[in-house]
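Hi V.,

Quick status before I head out on leave. The structure for the redesign project is tokenized and pasted below; the design run finished overnight.
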């Protein structure tokens, strides 16, 4: 028995980097595939060929460079918002305040961006981003402190603060403040200075550097969470806070740090939407995007690599869903149904996989104890 176990270990090749990527993406891809299959059955029941529907969706999302650039632009806030939620999940908290952080970050960027400071574009953009990140971080410190030191549920506090941030934005872009563009047809701020706007990367599109920055942030946090002491403390607190406390980890400080860090990333997302796409601060300019970021993190299972896949999946459905509906007659609500089905299957795959993992661990422990008894005999 002991020889078989040792041979199995010798024949197994461990590649930590590739192994982590395979595990992180495998569940999401399998869940999405099963969700698409189940949705195809529903599309077929509605009287539409599911292959034709999915072909239209793919054509609307990836059929041309302009269509793909639209997917990238739509993925930008979901990438940053999704990773902001995911790093909180690793600590055992659900930071559902991304919607509010985006508004606060947009306010910070607008307060600096509307003024022509005579600076080079790089410096002006950096100042806008810095203002957005700091303001959003201070905003996130409120629910972070309440959760870490007062035991207040972070879901409740962040959702309530979302409404405060939204109505604060609505007030700032109204006629009664100096930031508003008085007489505009819709409540909005003054336009940002040219030096505060992000460059367009593809002529004739709205593609800005935001999606590529979002991908970079996801990759950075993948390494931080999995290969640094900070990430180990984060995962330890999220998996077993009592053991983490016994080991000497400061759970309260770590929880507050991760909530504030998520708020700063959310603020960065709002600043990018304002500086790269809107060029002004509008009332209700990101309605629902923050909550979609929570769904992205849920679909990704809280894993930074899977956040990239989930964000692009959401963005492709948004960009290609209209084409699918127009060309095949599928109800526009089918996008939401597809997302819901995929999320259900991803959760289901995670539950099955966790049970299988516990079974394997239990089997290995039994085999190990049996081999020890054999050796002693």
């Amino acid at each position: 028995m002991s020889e078989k176990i040792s041979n199995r270990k010798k024949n197994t090749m461990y590649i930590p980097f590739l192994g982590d990527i395979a595990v992180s993406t495998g569940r999401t891809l399998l869940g999405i595939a099963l969700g698409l299959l189940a949705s195809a059955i529903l599309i077929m029941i509605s009287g539409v060929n599911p292959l034709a529907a999915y072909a239209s969706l793919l054509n609307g999302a990836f059929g041309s460079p302009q269509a793909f650039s639209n997917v990238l632009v739509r993925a930008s806030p979901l990438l940053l918002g999704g990773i902001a939620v995911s790093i909180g999940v690793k600590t055992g908290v659900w930071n559902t305040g991304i919607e509010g952080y985006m508004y606060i970050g947009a306010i910070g960027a607008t307060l600096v961006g509307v003024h022509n400071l005579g600076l080079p574009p790089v410096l002006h953009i950096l100042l806008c981003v810095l203002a957005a990140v700091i303001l959003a971080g201070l905003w996130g410190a409120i629910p972070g402190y309440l959760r870490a030191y007062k035991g207040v549920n972070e879901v409740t506090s962040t959702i309530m603060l979302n409404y405060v941030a939204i109505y604060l934005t609505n007030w700032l872009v109204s006629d009664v403040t100096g930031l508003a563009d008085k007489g505009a047809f819709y409540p909005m701020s003054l336009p940002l200075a040219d030096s505060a706007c992000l460059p367009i990367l593809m002529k004739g599109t709205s593609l800005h550097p935001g999606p590529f920055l979002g991908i970079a942030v996801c990759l950075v946090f993948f390494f931080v969470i999995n290969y640094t002491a900070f990430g180990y403390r984060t995962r330890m607190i999220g998996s077993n806070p009592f053991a983490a406390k016994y080991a000497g980890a400061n759970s309260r400080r770590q929880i507050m740090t991760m909530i504030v860090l998520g708020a700063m990333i959310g603020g960065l997302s709002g600043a990018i939407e304002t500086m790269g796409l809107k060029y002004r601060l509008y009332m209700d300019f990101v309605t629902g995007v923050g909550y979609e970021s929570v769904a992205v993190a849920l679909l990704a299972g809280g894993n930074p690599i899977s956040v990239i896949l989930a964000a692009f999946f959401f963005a492709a459905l948004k960009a290609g869903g209209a084409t699918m509906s127009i060309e095949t007659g599928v109800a526009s609500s089918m996008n939401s149904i597809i997302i819901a089905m995929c999320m259900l299957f991803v959760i289901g795959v995670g539950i099955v996989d966790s049970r299988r993992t516990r079974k394997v661990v239990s089997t290995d422990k039994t085999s190990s104890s049996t081999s020890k008894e054999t050796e002693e005999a």
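Above is the designed sequence. The CA atoms of residues 233 and 248 lie 10 Å apart.

G. will cover questions while I'm gone.

Best,
W.
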